[in-house]
Structures are given as structure tokens and as C-alpha cells.
Amino acid sequence: MDAPVVSSAMGVALLTDWILPFLGALQRELFLFSAVWILISAIDDLCIDIIWIVRHFYHRLTFYRYALPRTVMQLFDPHDNKRFAVFVPAWGEAEVIGEMLHNCTRQWVAFAGRYRIFVGCYANDPQTAAAITQAARTNADIQIVYVEHDGPTTKADCLNRLWRALLADEVAERYTAKAIVLHDAEDSVHADELRVFDCLVTMRGAVQLPVIPVRTANSRWVSGHYCDEFAEAHSKNMVVREAIGAPLPLAGVACAIERNLMGRLAQLNGGRPFDTNSLTEDYEFGIRMGAAGGRTIMARIFDSEGKLVGTRACFPDTLQTSVRQKTRWLTGIALAGWDRLGWEGNIAQKWMLFQDRKSILGTIVVIAAYICLLLTTILGVAQALGLYQPTELSAEVIMLISLNTAFLLWRLGVRAGFVAALYGPREALLSVPRSIVSNVIAIMAMRQACTNYLRHCLGAPLTWDKTAHHVMPDKLAHSD
Fold first, then answer.
1. In the chain, where are the structural domains located?
2. Where are the beta strands (DSSP E) in 287-431?
């Protein structure tokens, strides 16, 4: 027999007797691992869905049976005329901070004199400082505050400097602020935002308005997936957290904290309300506030035109910048947050902490599932060529596949429903393929987050990775 023929036969034998059976065994193990954990996570998510559905229809049959939900204009008026302090940390925000502040001036004209915007910046960032100074010329309620050292530092460090500036301002002008409002330099505020805060913030201690991402025209997939995630999170997940009595993590924007409550939290932390060692200071502040007895209202209220009162903002619109942002979120919430916050609180809080932290395991499961899908494709081709014969699926495996398929369709449908309610049917349809983009970004961010955290465990400090902003929602062209 010729050598090439022998070599070919040996290669086929190696493929059919060793390689393909090994791939088949690996595929089965990955399938069982991913399928079981996907089922557990799906049941966990279904419990959230059920609570939201029960709550929704309960309200429809009781509170809203004879009257529609109240709008902003139907909220009570406290008549106390106390001032709001708005904190806006800024580093490298020259492209957006000026327009953001001008927009606040335009939108909050009814509250002129009842708010003061403290904008934190750094001496080694003259472009941002110049933009803030220019905006302050047209609004005396804008005050520039310089951090004592060069930037960039963490967002928490800048917020703590703004807190000290507020304390000094209160002493100088003999007033006590009603609440502290948090915003980022790229936010587009709603005209009725301060009215909602004015009416609700003293009821429990804090108020969170929905964050409404606005996708950029040239980033249907990366920028758009934030629309999907926030539509579901701030329409369902945060509502459920409030309903079951678990502390709500603040989004860091579009939220107000009652001034005395923030003062108590600052005293507990050496005079600094925000922890400079945290990568997700807003998330941790909300959890710590709950432990201190404060509660957050997730306020979903509509204005006189039937539009949701919330803050519109642009999120990263490239793969690289999105992965960087998600890496910081994953590190701060699911990894470092585990160390810093532990598992304290009642059963509801522990459940929600599990919801926040299961993303790391969930990403590993998704990786296993995608590898399993790739192996299934390879083995399917081998089967079509007559090189591989798979084992017959058991009834239990078929049931597992059927359940996970049903849960997947339910999950995509639920998210599409919330996206449709906020953005319309077109974005709802796009949310289905965007779920793949979301998974890819999560996988890449998980890899980097785990690498960063491993280095931290070995002694390296966790470093703040700021998200760059280059466009305001009101400046976007809405054509694709």
C-alpha cells in the first residue's frame, strides 16, 4: 500500500476513533454544565418576572381601576422652598459639560434660585474648567469647585470634594439643602426632575429616576444594547427590588439623597459620604444607605405630555469602550463588591445581591454554551460526512433542552416588551439580536475583570477607568 494512502487512512482513523469521540464527550459535558445552570438562572429570573407581573396587575385592579397613575402635576407640593444641591463630577468633559449645564438652566427655569450646581473639576484640565466657567456666566446657580490635587482621580473623590463645598456654602449663606442630586457631565435632565425630587425625597430618604439611554446613530448594536438592558432593569428589576424591601443600588445619575441622610452616612465614613476605594461608589452608596435605615423610591412618573420623567444619556458606542465600562461595573459590583459588602441584610437583600453577582458565573456559563454550540456544529458536519454517530438523546436531556428553549424565548420576549414600551417596536425587534452583542461584551468584560481582580488579590490596587463622553443626547442625529 502506498505511503500517502496509509497516512490518509491513519488520519481518518485518528479522527473517527479519537478526536471526534473526545469532542463528543466534551460537548456532552459542556452541554450538561451550561444547560443546568442556565435553567437555574432562568428560574431565578422568572421569579423576578412573576413578582413584577403580580404587582403590575394588582395595581391595575386596585389603585388604577378607577383612576390613571398620577402625573407630575398631581403630586403634592411641599411648599418648603428648600434648595437642591446638584453634584456633577467632571474630568475630561470639555465636549459635553457646557451643553449639559446650559440644558439644566433651560429645563429647570421653574426652579431658578432653588438649586445650586456644584461642578467638580481639576486644575490640570483647563478645557473642562473653561467650559464650566462659560456656562456659569449665564447662570449664577452654577459653582465651579476645584479638587485639591491633579486629576484624574476616582469619581468618589470628586464627589467628596463637592460635599465639602456644599457644607461650606451652607455655612456661608445660612441654609440647609433639602437633598443632593447626582448627575454626570453627559446627562440630559428632564424639566420636571426637581419637582419629583421635591415631592418624594423626604418620604424615604432617596429617589431614583429611570435612566434612559439614547443610542447613537452609527452604533445600532453596541450603543443600542444599553437601551435594552436599562429598559428592563429600570422598568422591572428595580421596581421588584423596591417591592420586596431590598435596598436599591443608585445609578449615580438622576437620583436624589435627602441631605441629613447623606450627612449621617458621611459621619459613618470619616466625613466622606463616598468611598474613594470603590469602583462603583453609587451602587455601594445605595446598599449602605439601606443598611443605615434609608430607602430609595424608584419613581416612574409621567409628565403632562405622557412621557416618562427620567434622565437621557449616551453610553459607549464602540466595542472597546463598552468593554472597558462593563469591566469596571463587573469588578466593582460582582467581585470587589462581594468582598466589600459581603452578604449582609435580610433574605430579600441577599437574593438581590445574588442577582447582581451571578453575572460572573453567568458569563462562564455563556462561554460554555457557545463552545458547546460550536462543537455541535462541528459534530453535525462530521455526522453528515458519515464520520461520526452521536449517542441518542435521553428523555431527560430532551426535556432540559425544551425547558431552556422555552425560557430563552420568554426572556427575549420579556426584554423586547419593556424595550417596546420605551422605544417602540423597531428597537424591540433589534433587542433580540442585540442579546448576542450583550453576551459578547459580557464575556470580554468578564475576562478583563477577573484578570484585574486577580492582580488586586496579589497586591495591585484597583484603578478607576473613566468612561469618555463625546456627545449629548440632544445633539444626536436620529437617522441611521
1. 72-318
2. 295-298, 311-313
